Amino acid sequence: MTAADAKTAALLDRASGYDYHQGPMTVPQTNPGDFWSIECIDLYKSFGSNRVMNGLNVGIPEGMITVILGPSGTGKSVLLSHLIGLMFPDKGDILVHGESVPRMKQARLLEMRRKFGILFQDGALFGSMNVYDNVAFPLRQHTDMSEEQIKDVVMRRLDEVGLANGAETRSPAELSGGMKKRAGFARALVLEPQIVLFDEPDSGLDPVRTALLCQLIEKVHAENGGTYVVITHDIASARRIGEYIAVLWKGRIVQSGDRDDMFDSPNPFVRQFLAGNPGGPLGME
Amino acid sequence: MTTSSENPDPATRLPVDAHGARGAVAEDAAPRADHREAWETLIDVFEQAGDEPRIAEPIGRIEQVVLLRSLDLDGSGVLLVCRGGRLEVVDRDGASEQPTIELALRTPEIEKLAVGKLRTAMAIADGRATYAGPVRQFLRVLPLVQAMVNPPVAMGTNTDDELVEEIA
User: Hey, is the C-beta of B18 within 8 angstroms of any chain A C-beta?
Assistant: First the structure.
């Protein structure tokens, strides 16, 4: 173990030692997937000598908006990649609806990914297609719907995100940052995913547009249900939409719980991070 | 069992606590009549949801029969038959359906659910509600019912109209 690893381990032990550390919620299940939408069990992942996930345990409850909150470079996006089987852990397991992602064969993995809708940081729209075709793309790729049926779905989803007002004919280059996010959100929804992942949905947006996007995420979740997982370092977004919050630091969940409990947390790590306070156990390392 | 026509706004029937919040009554303080009232209010909510195709259709696609029970009323329970794109509230007594999921709640949680403010998964995790069977399937669609009685804030509310127009 390097000196840096030892320091990290010591800090994590301290963080875990507080009485108020809750760790992962434990809910007994008769069968895997009875309760949890996603379970990450003791995940470890390293890239060379850089350990990104360090015994990560978290359960993502069903029917709620979960925010995974953490400082930059703490493994949030790596975790997201593990959830959808784009990366696999060195050790540990990820269960989606009770099924082990690392143990899935390729065909099952592709099928499992259809449970997910993903809003990428920049919307990840195809620059060569207009908004309508971008949103229609997954339906054309993965279903045998007629163009008339596709139009119904696409326009309903665009309407849901406030883009059915002529914006559908525009190219991504003609859209503002907020509109790109909303178009990406509409595309994430067209296959009616049971789980929607948001990778830093606030990135590149000013506070007002971030707040509007959060309001939209809440509204769409309320109208569609399912599991929403928002990965962010933006505390305002977490406070606004997070019903269940897990704070990730150094590749491990330091604390998780109900939003109200988290913002009242006496855990110094969580308090410092949620308050954006430079003084405290979190440093620049 | 009451019908939805008796009470178009179930939230208004719930008791109000000292802080003015509906459905936030402490369970120990709740008299038995309140248990019954909260329970009937919740049944009204599910009956309304069953009458609303936009809500009933996705719930009816989970293909489960949910036994919903009050832990504060002896044996009280109804079956929510979620099948074939329909949601039906059926009296448990004499029903031919067998539940595949059971969700049991105490009165404070019933009240919160009836006004669309229950974080049901958290209630289960905290032991304020109990379940059996693949409850996840029901939790997935429960936000639709909660949004029916507690509609989400529309995008752009509380912001400058001109800005919203520009963003849209």
Answer: no
**B102-127: average pLDDT:** 90
ipTM: 0.83
A220 neighbors A161 (Cβ within 8 angstroms): yes
> What separation, in Å, do the N-terminal and C-terminal C-alpha atoms of chain A show?
17
Helices (H), chain B: 32-51, 53-60, 107-114, 120-125, 135-149, 161-167
Residues B144 and B59: beta-carbon distance below 8 Å: yes
Show the domains of chain A with their CATH numbers. Answer: 63-86+106-115+194-275 (3.40.50.300)
A156 touches chain B (CB under 8 A): no
Which H or E run contains A7?
A: helix A3-17
Residues in chain A: 285
Q: Which of A213-227, B26-40, B42-56 has the lowest mean pLDDT?
A: B26-40
Report CB contact under 8 Å: B155, A31.
Answer: no
Tell me, what CATH number does B20's domain have? 3.30.1050.10
Interface check B53 vs A, CB under 8 A:
no
- Quick: pLDDT tens for A138-178: 999 889 999 999 999 999 889 888 888 888 888 888 888 88
Determine how β-strand A227-232 pairs with β-strand A195-199.
Answer: parallel
Give me the number of domains chain B comprises: 1
Whether A191 and A138 have beta carbons less than 8 Å apart is answered as: yes
Is B80 a residue whose pLDDT tops 60?
yes
